[in-house]
Amino acid sequence: MLFMKVALITHNIYLEHNPYLQHPESKGRPHSIIESIMPIREKLIYHEAIPASIDQLSTVHAEEYINNIKRSSIKQISIDSDIYCSTWT
């Protein structure tokens, strides 16, 4: 049987994830995920995430959407019910 490796793409900045109080996610979520994968950590391939360039983002998002995210991250507000923008966005 053939088994494939699974990559975990992560970065310490993810630990700064802190959506506003009404958001269903919490600051503890990244910590909880890391804790839950501890039993299989040796089986994972780890890669550190790198920021995407505007050109890379433009291949999958409209310019208007990218600009909206930039403006929202400065103000640290939600752009819809599921997406909260912070200074780390």
Main attributes of the structure:
about 90 residues; alpha+beta; 2 domains; two-stranded parallel sheet; 2 strands; about 30% helix
Q: How many domains make up the coordinates?
A: 2
Task: Please provide the count of β strands.
Answer: 2
Q: How many angstroms does the end-to-end distance come to?
A: 41 Å
How would you classify the helix and strand content by structural class?
Answer: alpha+beta
Counted by DSSP, the helix tally is 3
Q: Determine the fraction of residues in helical runs and give it as a percent range.
A: 25-40%
The main β sheet shows up as:
2 strands, parallel
Radius of gyration: 16 Å
* Molecular shape: globular
Task: Tell me the strand percentage band.
Answer: 5-15%
Q: Which regions have little confidence, pLDDT < 50, spanning 5+ residues?
A: none
Strand order of the largest sheet: 1-2
Order of helices and strands: EHEHH
Give the rounded overall mean pLDDT. Answer: 84
Task: Explain what you see.
By secondary structure, the chain is an alpha+beta fold. The chain has 2 domains: 1-50, no CATH class; 52-89, no CATH class. Helices cover 29% and strands 11% of the residues. It is built from 3 helices and 2 strands. It has helices spanning 29-36, 54-58, 63-75; strands spanning 6-10, 44-48. Strands 1-2 form a two-stranded parallel sheet. Helix 1 (29-36) links the parallel strand 1 (6-10) and strand 2 (44-48). The model has no long low-confidence stretch (mean pLDDT 84).
Give me a quick take on this structure.
By secondary structure, the chain is α+β, with helices and mostly antiparallel strands. 29% of the residues lie in helices and 11% in strands.
